[in-house]
Amino acid sequence: EADIYQTPRYLVIGTGKKITLECSQTMGHDKMYWYQQDPGMELHLIHYSYGVNSTEKGDLSSESTVSRIRTEHFPLTLESARPSHTSQYLCASSEYISGRADEQFFGPGTRLTVL
Amino acid sequence: AQSVAQPEDQVNVAEGNPLTVKCTYSVSGNPYLFWYVQYPNRGLQFLLKYITGDNLVKGSYGFEAEFNKSQTSFHLKKPSALVSDSALYFCAVRGLNYGGSQGNLIFGKGTKLSVKP
Fold it and tell me: Do the Cβ atoms of A40 and B108 come within 8 Å?
C-alpha cells in the first residue's frame, strides 16, 4: 500500500546529541518536504527536495540538514540538538509536474523533545 | 505576495448543526486551493482541492468547500457536524512556481474545530 512513513514517532534526547529523523515514501513521488510544527500551531516549511540530489531550504531557517540520495528517502539530521529544537516534524511528499497543483501527503510526524 | 488567512482561531459547533471554517486567499493569477485536517498527534490529511471548474468542491468525510472568486474565499463546510470532526483544519494555497514559494503550498495558521454533543 502506498504510504509515507516517519520514524521514530517520539524521541526524547539530551542536548548536544546528533539525531536523524527518518522519512520514507512508497508513493513514487518526486517532491518531498519537511515541516516544523509546534503542537496545534501553524506549519513552517524548513526543507524540500525536487528529487534525487536536490535539496532546498524552506521559509523557516533551520539548523537541520537534509539529504536525498534515493527517491523514496528524505532524512533530516540535527548535528547537535538543543531545547529550541523541541517540536513536531512532519514529512510530506507530492508529485512534481510544473504547473500542476498536486496535493501533498503527510506522514504521521515525529515529536522531538530535547532536554 | 501569495497568502492565505484563516480569521478564526477556533470554531465551536453543536453536533448535527452545519459548520463553516473560513479561509481567504491572496494570489496572483488563478488560485489552487486546498483543505487539510489534522487530528491530535497525527500528520495532515488531505480533504479536498479546487483547481478549476465547479465552485463547489466535494471532498472526504462529507466536507465540501465553496470557491468564491469575488470574495477571494474558500470556506470549508459540512451540513451536519459530528463530534469526530473535532480537529485542526488548515487551508492552503499553491504558491507561484518562481520566487520564494517555488510552487510549494502556503498554509494558513489553522482553525481548531470543536464539535460538542
Answer: no
pLDDT of B50 reads 93
Could you tell me which residues come within 8 angstroms of residue B91 by beta carbon, excluding any fewer than 6 positions away? B4, B6, B21, B23, B25, B33, B34, B35, B74, B76, B107, B108
Q: CB of A98 within 8 Å of any CB in chain B?
A: yes
Query: Is A40 in Cβ contact with B112 (below 8 Å)?
Result: yes
Contact check, Cβ <8 Å, B110/A99? no
* Whether residue B7 has a cis bond before it, omega within 30° of 0: no
A107 at B interface, C-beta within 8 A: yes
Q: Which residue of A has its CA nearest to B40?
A: A40
Phi-psi region of A50 (alpha: psi -120 to 50; beta: other; left: phi over 0): alpha
User: Residue A94 — left, alpha, or beta (φ > 0 → left; ψ -120 to 50 → alpha)?
Assistant: beta
Closest CA to A50 of A110, A89, A93, A5: A93
Measure the CA dihedral B21/A98/A4/B109, to 10°: -30
> Contact B110/A42, CB-based, under 8 Å?
yes
- The answer to whether B25 faces chain A, any CB pair under 8 Å, is no
Q: In angstroms, rounded to a whole number, what is the distance separating the alpha carbons of residues B65 and B55? A: 8
Kindly give, in sequence order, each residue whose CB lies less than 8 Å from that of residue B43, ignoring residues fewer than 6 positions away.
Answer: A4, A6, A90, A91, A92, A106, A107, A108, A109
Taking only the tens place, the pLDDT of each residue in A49-89 is 999 999 999 988 889 999 999 999 999 999 999 999 999 99
